[in-house]
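Quick one: C-alpha cells for this chain, please?
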Amino acid sequence: QVQLVESGGGLVQPGGSLRLSCAASGFTFSNYAMSWYHQAPGKERDFVAIINKFGSFRNYADSVKGRFTVSRDNVKNTVYLQMNSLKPEDTAVYYCRQAGGYWGRGTQVTVSS
C-alpha cells in the first residue's frame, strides 16, 4: 500500500534551517507530482510547495518563496523540503502529499528562541 513517511522536523531558532524528507513506497514514485503542506495549530492545512514528477517544475506559496526549496530523488523515492531563514510563523506540522491524494502523517517543525 502507499506509504509516505516524513522526517527531519524539530526545534530550530529563528533564522535557522531544516531539511525535511518524505520517503515514499507502495507506488511508482517517478509517476507522481509531490507536494508539501503545513498546518499550524488551530488553522487549516495550507499548501507550501509542489514539484512535478520529473523535478523540472516547482511552485511555492508566496510565504516561503526564496526561503524554501523542494527537490526529489526518483532513485531514492524521496522528496525533500529545504527550509532556510525560518521564522516563528513557519511553526507547523509539515505533511507530504502524493498527487493521487495520499498523505503522510507529518513531522513537527517548531521555530522558537
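Residues 39 and 45 are 4 Å apart (CA to CA).
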